[in-house]
Amino acid sequence: MTGPATAPITLPDDIQVQIVSATSGAADPAIYDSDPTENTLATITTEITNRSNATFSFPAEKSSVRASLLYGVNRYKATGWAVSNGGASDLPGQLVAGTSAKMTSKFTLRKEGLDSVVFQFSPNGDTAADATFTDVQKLFR
């Protein structure tokens, strides 16, 4: 499912995904030790809401919750970083109907690619479809 970053996307199992915050700024090389040309840090907070009548289970292995950032017109893949507070490992085991949870993702990328940014997210990469958000750069503050 694909849509603009300014609107929520509802996946086929009635799980709604929405970007609630997106920021970009200089990446601290002392913390983010990646390719030196990846000098920009993008932080995206996503809210996952269960709009169905059934309980949604996150995967037991939280690494199956997928988040990726693509940038530039050729969609280079940004480097993803573990988030100690608020990342995938802090998601609950499930969302009962009508409840939500938030997750933060961090990426480093080249500043030259900030004119075109796409964020892809799946609350369960083993079973759920991806929500693909276009024009994420319009949300950066």
Concise synopsis of the structure shown:
The protein is mostly beta strands.
General description of the model:
The radius of gyration is 15 Å and the shape is globular. A five-stranded mixed β-sheet has the order 1-12-11-6-7, with no helix packed on it. It has no helices and twelve strands. By secondary structure, it is mainly β. It has one domain: Immunoglobulin-like, CATH 2.60.40. It is 0% helix and 45% strand.
Question: What keyword list fits this structure?
Answer:
141 residues, mainly beta, Immunoglobulin-like, five-stranded mixed β-sheet, five-stranded antiparallel β-sheet, 12 strands, 0% helix
| Proportion of beta-strand residues | 35-45%
* Residue runs with pLDDT of under 50 for 5 or more positions: none
CATH class: Mainly Beta
Number of domains: 1
Rg over C-alpha atoms, rounded to the nearest angstrom: 15 Å
Main sheet record: 5 strands, mixed
Order of helices and strands: EEEEEEEEEEEE
Principal-axes geometry comes out as: globular
Tell me, rounded to a whole number, the average pLDDT. 91
CATH topology: Immunoglobulin-like
Helix content: under 10%
Oligomer: single chain
Structural class: mainly beta
N-to-C CA distance: 25 Å
Per DSSP E runs of 2 or more residues, the count of β-strands stands at 12
In the CATH hierarchy, what is the architecture at level 2? Sandwich
The largest beta-sheet arranges its strands as: 1-12-11-6-7
